Structure formats: C-alpha cells, structure tokens
Amino acid sequence: MAEIIRMPKMSDTMTEGVVVAWHKKVGDTVKVGDILAEVETDKATMELENYVKGTLLHIGVEQGHAVPVDALIAIVGKEGEDVAALLNAGAPAPAGSSAAPLEQAAGTAAQPTAPAQALAQPPVEALAPADQQRIKASPLARKLAAEQGLDLRRIQGSGDNGRIVRRDLQGQAAATAPAAAEAIATPDLSAWLNRPAGQGESFTDQPLSQMRKTIARRLTESKNAAPHFYLTMEIDMDEAVEARQRLNQNAPVKISINDLVIKAAAMALRQHPAVNSSWLGDRIRQNHHIHVGVAMALPEGLVVPVLRFADQKNLVQIATQTKEYAGKAKEKKLQPQDWEGNTFTISNLGMFGIEAFTAIINPPDACILAVGAVRECPVVRNGQLSVGQRMTVTLSCDHRVVDGATGAAFLQSLSLMLRDPVSMLL
Fold first, then answer.
1. Neighbour order of strands in the sheet with 3-6
2. Under DSSP, is residue 324 helix (H, G, I), strand (E, B) or coil?
3. Are 155 and 231 found together in one domain?
4. Which of 168, 194, 220 is the last residue of a domain?
5. How far is it between the farthest Cα atoms of the chain?
6. Is-catalytic flag, 399?
7. Active-site position among 23, 58, 272, 399
8. For residue 47, what are the domain limits?
C-alpha cells in the first residue's frame, strides 16, 4: 500500500521547509535510506532520507517551494498504484473554497440592468471601490490616471495578465477621460512619462529564506519578551594580544582573539553560574554545563553553532572547533546537534572594525556578550601617556534572570582573565 512522505521537523524551531532539489523523479524505484531531496530548514540545508521501499508515485511540492512541517511532499508505493485517495486525504481543502465568487459577494446579481450606452461610458463617480480594486494596474499607472482623470476600465493593459502600466496611459487623455472631466485642464505629463528609465525609483523584493524567517521570529520574541539591559566595559588587551602572538608561534592551529574571549567567558561563567541560566516562565534554570554559542554571519543571516563544555576545552580545541563550524556553516552542512543546547552566546563584530555594539539575547540564554574590535588608543599608566590595546564588550542581560551587580561581576572576571591570560591555562 502506498505511503505518504511528509515534511519532517528537522530542528527544534522548524515550522516549514523549502525543497531545494529533488534527487528522485516520479517513476524512480527507491529503497530505504535513499536521498529523496534536499530541504532548507531555518538553520541549514539537509538531506531528506526515504523510509519506504517502492516506487516514487507522486511529488507534492516543486523545487524552491516551501511547505509546513507534516505537509505531504511525496507518495511512495507499488508501481501503477492509484494515489488519488491519499492525495485527497493528505491535502488540505483549498483556502476560501466555501466562499462565494467575488461578483456574487458584491451583489452583482441584484444590480439593475443599465442601457448599453450607459454601460459603455459610466461616469467616474459610478465606480465602486471593489471595482477599482479589481482593475489590474501598477501603482504608478493608478497615480497618473488619477492626476489625468482617466478611466482605467477603458484602457487595455499591455503588462503581465493584462496589467495596466505607465506606457498604456500615453496618448489616452482625450480618448478615455469622462465627459465631465474633459473641461478640466490636466497638466502636461509628457516629460514625466517619457523621462529616461534610469531616473525612476526602483527596488527588488527578496524572498525570505527559512533562516531569515526564523531569525526575525525568534529575535522579535526575545526583544519583546525579555527586559534587556546592557553593561559595557573596556578591557585592557595588551597581555592578551602579546600572549596570542606567542601562542601562535607553536600552536597547530591559529588562535584568534575571539578564541581567547570564548575561553575567558567560559571560565567566568563557571565563577558566575547565574549568568549561565535560562528563564522558563515559572522558574529559572541554572545550567551546570557551559555550552557557548558563537554567532557566525552568513549571507542569509546568523547561525550560532555551540561549543559544548567550553570551559573544559583548551585554546587549540576551541580554535579548531570554531574553524570547523565556520566551514560547515558556509557550506550549509551544520546539523541540529551543532546548534542546539547553548547556555550563553558570544557575538563578535571586531573583525569588521566595529568598536562597540549591543546584541539581542539569543533564547534560551539569559545573556549575550557583544565583542568589539581590539584597537590602539592613548592610555595613562603611572601618570604617563602611552599607547595601549583596548577592547569594548557589552553584556546584554535578561533582567528577569540577571541583576546589574551579577552581570557586572561577570564582566570583571572576564576582564581579569583577558588581562592575565596565563590564568586561563591554570
């Protein structure tokens, strides 16, 4: 018997998926474990494995289209098997199927019959709002028609599906203006209509990716639900910069400033467990493990792979895993286990020259650390002016979980470790 293949829930936050590519076509024989398609989730592009042996009888979603989780996307069964019953059972009723046609809803059947001449030249005032809305015309064409007193119903559109566009209005003033409007002088818009194409306004609408949709939803929820407050501190990075240079002389992988920040933050979280917590509505969960999420920028948005037990890793392990995650993120090969379970997040824009910024808390964390660039600046040491390395960090805190003094104490510990990197190796 044929079976329905449904869109699986591939991540904890996934609500719909986009079929990027089908690897099988209708009529192909498939076995358990075959890759049917590639699906773009809110976090990555993943392979969809088949779990039914048979023939691919039906594909229910085209490449590039999105469907909600649990929606029918394919049917597999015996060759030649009728799938009509499954399609009827697996597909929702068309939206608005019980609604009457627009013309009936507007009551056109009850409207009195008008003489043919009157129908041919109705006055502008006779147009009902619903009729105006059903006319297919571009916004610019509507604007110009209103300025010239033109009746769009008398103009034949040359755009897609008969849509009226700007060029259709040229030379139409005398032919289509109602008699009542003919006596009104209209401005000469020939210069506007015939202006060079490069001088007009333009835009491009970009469709939302699954990742961007999820980012928008989750961060909006975070900003609206969590009462954010911010703590900013400038950290002396002289010793950290020097230590990094010495470490990279012998390290098997290049250690970055961000790797040092991750290690210092993980150790500071061990000292301040309240910062390593989550708000659960009716209780606060204080996590005993330290899983640091590291925000990474992609063209589609941000991904936050997680360094698990970051406080127990050395700098080489942190640097290696961070670089591995960055490569997988660019290739959209991150898996759910790579991005789930964060207890604290770090977002670093220092490599872009950003000196300071504030970040939105990444649920379910109670805090996120925004890291700016290390910069040379004048500093005073023992009453003498000199050049020093400084870095600005800002801790965004959920005030339901973390108080100001708690967040400040965490930043003090972070600063002490970066000012004395040897302490992180003990």
1. 3-6, 72-77, 54-59, 29-30
2. helix
3. no
4. 194
5. 99
6. yes
7. 399
8. 3-90
